[in-house]
Amino acid sequence: MLTRIHGSRLIDPERSVDGTTAGISPPSDLWMRDGRLLDAPEQPVTPDLDIDATGCLSMAGGIDLHTHIGGGKVSLARMLLRDQMPPWRGAQPTDSSDPADCRFLPSASTTASRYLDMGYTTCLEPAVIPCNARAAHAEMADVRGIDTGGYCLLGNDDVLLQLIAEKSPQETINAYVAWMVMATRCIAVKVVNPGGIHAFKFNHRSLDVDTPHPCSGVTPGQIVRVLCRAVHEIGLAHPLHVHCSNLGVPGNIASTLATIEAADGYPIHLTHAQFHCYGKDGPYQFSSAASALVEAMGKHSNVTIDVGQVQFGQTVTISADSMHQHVNSAHAKPRKSVLVDVECEAGCGVVPFRYRRREFVHSLQWAIGLELFLMVDDPSRVFLTTDHPNGGPFTAYPHLLGLLADRTLRETALAEIHPEAAAASSLAGISREYSLSDIAMMTRNAPARILGLSDRGTLAPGCVADVVVYRQQASIEKMFAVPELVFKSGELIRRCGAAVEPTGSPQLDCTLAADAQAIGSRVASKQLTDFRKRYAQNGTFALDRLWISDAELEDVLGSRLRNTGMQGETSTVHGGAAS
User: Fold this and answer.
1) Which of 270, 360, 537, 569 has the most CB atoms in a 10 Å sphere around its CB?
2) What are the tens digits of pLDDT across the range 309-345?
3) Residue ranges covered by each domain of the chain
4) Tell me, which fold does domain 2-59+463-499 have in CATH?
5) What is the pLDDT of residues 175-186, one digit of tens each?
6) Quick check: bond before 27 cis, omega within 30?
7) Class of 62-449 in CATH
8) Cα 458 to the center of its chain, rounded Å
9) Closest Cα partner for 562 from 240, 115, 554, 61?
10) How far apart are CA 4 and CA 523, in angstroms?
């Protein structure tokens, strides 16, 4: 079906359109067919669906590169908090009593619906433990309607630590990382508290960047260094995705800066940076170190961050960082938590938490996140996340965009937090306001680029027809809260917040994974034999049990596979037509 959207202004910093200023075109036509965007026809043609979007803005579908939407930790959180959902006031919409509608921990299907309601069409789960990858993909397959993918969690597994401790050649480590990414059908590599989760199993409660592991002698800095290099040399588009040491600890900015140095100039992405950006100044020995991180980013062009913005209210923190979740369990609200050791690969901690507006530390965390957004002057290097659900629910994104784009709204919110936190923050002195082009870059263009998703994030012809049409309004928050229209793969699926039944393919979504053929040459049979032996000595099942075949992913787990995420690669689809 040939579709035309006419009369809207196109917001796309990477698309060249005659008359474009700062990524915003004059009223233009947007054409799509067979799930792809098209050049305008050379000859006059009547579209099958013609939509008048006068007074509107059009953007590519939003991309969330860090949101916890699948896997064992999410399931544990739902089980732990089942009795804490309804009838809690504020846990769900006032007209609902379904636990699936929880504001901060919705079911998989509700998660998909809420993302689509905001115009997000691609979401990445940032912590897929290899031995639990099947469960993670199965749950993400239930997030129906949006494209998903996962980051393979390494850096606390016995095999990798052994290889580093033995000073194995980088080629061997590259082969191990490549095989794990292929086996788990992931798109990138994540490390959480490098070596710290493993050290916690030996009763250690902290592990700084240059501190040797109590058993292997390997330091977190070494882990970061070899993994950054491995990810780059394998050819994965997304840099090593790093949850730094000492999350949430006052003074942890020193660890964060040391982690940047440990990357040795290789690309590195620091996730939920707000939680790793604390100093020790002031009467509470807790202060903002946002300026120090921004200064370091100015010196190191290889560094990108997402923020992990805190939102006030009830939520639940879920993390593989069992070392620091053990500490945080003392502050659980309600007072219960789950700590789990997962095979010999990682851990898991689930701790319910409530961020309070009039609490000094919580207020300053909120302000630090906004400082990072506003002080990093390049919107292609800072990404919009709440580390859902750790900092708060992803449904806060329209409100956050409002705060970034409207200084008056920001100053009003600043006046409502703890007064000492407001005084300790530099937020009041920042006049910058995000433009629509900045928003499009941060939430569309840049996430696609850093993930190697060359077929989305832009309105350029040939790309996937994930298109969102917003009614232009004075309030950025209201505008982004309820799009006028949402198209997924060329199918209209939302109109003014209401679901529209697609007329074409019943399955519009897919699983995004690194191209196995592109990285498979990194693994030699002799290396794989060694990996099998090492894994058998430390795990409870064979290494080959980790492998998820294309057929299993599609026929058993219910996801179509799209190979992508490589440096300079274009996407190909297996198991169906391009979505």
Assistant:
1) 270
2) 999 999 999 999 999 999 999 999 999 999 998 776 8
3) 2-59+463-499, 62-449
4) Urease, subunit C; domain 1 (2.30.40)
5) 999 999 999 999
6) no
7) alpha beta
8) 18
9) 554
10) 47
